[in-house]
Amino acid sequence: MRIRHLFATALVLACPLASGPVMGQSVQSSAGTLEATVLAEGLEHPWALAFLPDGRFLVTERGGALRIIDDGVVGPAIEGLPEVMARGQGGLLDVALAPDFSESGRLYLTMAEPGEGGTSGTAVLSARLALQTDGGRLEDQAVIFRMNNFTETTRHYGSRIVIGKDGNLFVTLGERGDAARAQDAADLAGGVVRIAPDGSVPADNPQPDGWAPELWSIGHRNPQGATLRESDGALFAVEHGARGGDEVNLVQAGRNYGWPEITFGTDYDGSRIGSGTEREGLEQPLHYWDPSISPSGLDFYEGELFPGWAGDLVLGGLSGTVLVRLDMEGDAVVGEERLFEGQLGRIRDVRVGADGALYLLTDERDGRLIRVAPAGGGK
Description:
Elements: E1 4-5, E2 26-29, E3 32-43, E4 46-51, E5 57-61, E6 65-70, E7 73-74, E8 92-97, H1 101-104, E9 106-114, E10 120-132, E11 135-146, E12 161-163, E13 169-172, E14 192-195, E15 215-218, E16 223-229, E17 234-239, E18 246-251, E19 255-256, E20 287-289, E21 295-300, E22 313-317, E23 322-329, E24 332-339, E25 347-352, E26 358-362, E27 367-374
Parallel strand pairs: 1-20, 15-19
Antiparallel strand pairs: 2-3, 3-27, 4-5, 5-6, 6-7, 8-9, 9-10, 10-11, 12-13, 13-14, 14-15, 16-17, 17-18, 18-20, 21-22, 22-23, 23-24, 25-26, 26-27
């Protein structure tokens, strides 16, 4: 599979405005003029976004709160959430609505779950959201999955949930800052797991010799964005490298994505990691970034507002403070477009709405929900 490596010489379309975050502004893009509009603010390090069937937004905050945003108003914290380890990169992380949410109210949350002696690890909570006039409450809760080998580190939890076309759940897990764990197939850290909605192991998981039965793939560092291609159910993910080496991967069953044996990045002290950039039996990324942008949030664009972007990937950059579109031809990345670079803040999540607009969350103490649409239209 051919790698696409695009430096600053790639297609970069950014508005030449002031460098600080400025709201209500526009940029030129391959789809014309885009406008970023703040829909809500005052969120404390928001991490993930879901669209409720009635048009409201459901947002997680890393500190442990789940909130509904209604017409720009951030509601009170939904009651009934369990304790999370809200330290470092840990806390309340992703949220995904069950396919039958309109009838069942069922949703899934990932979190850094506290363990014994100050340890923590990534876990998945299944619960029913009972909506109330003043917010809501989580009921019928159950932790349906938790990674093995909790540790005291507070970094590299992952963690995104993607619901497959068969209803099973993909969950991305970071290697918790211990690179060797990503190559230990008995350890779930640094893997993508696939579980049934009740947490059991699907019978058709790949299960190569020596692999934990939950594992779908191994060799990941810290995948903080994942999405499904609806046409064929293929899973795509973005993950953080060290210094350079952020990756986009087509995540396939039974494959090893190489961390830390191969990488396009270097360690933070400049030293080499692993044996180079490729090795037989280890997968190559579709695309990588050097320098890093810290990709987080990922979605396929299938809306109608930007027809020229159909089938492309959109994602956010944390350290890169950028919205990125990756031009896709089949499974290949053939171009990159950078938008609002340095203008909107640390972009944690990116979702395509039913109206075709892009919805972003900024990971800040005063985080924002932002809508990106054609200037003067797309309402």
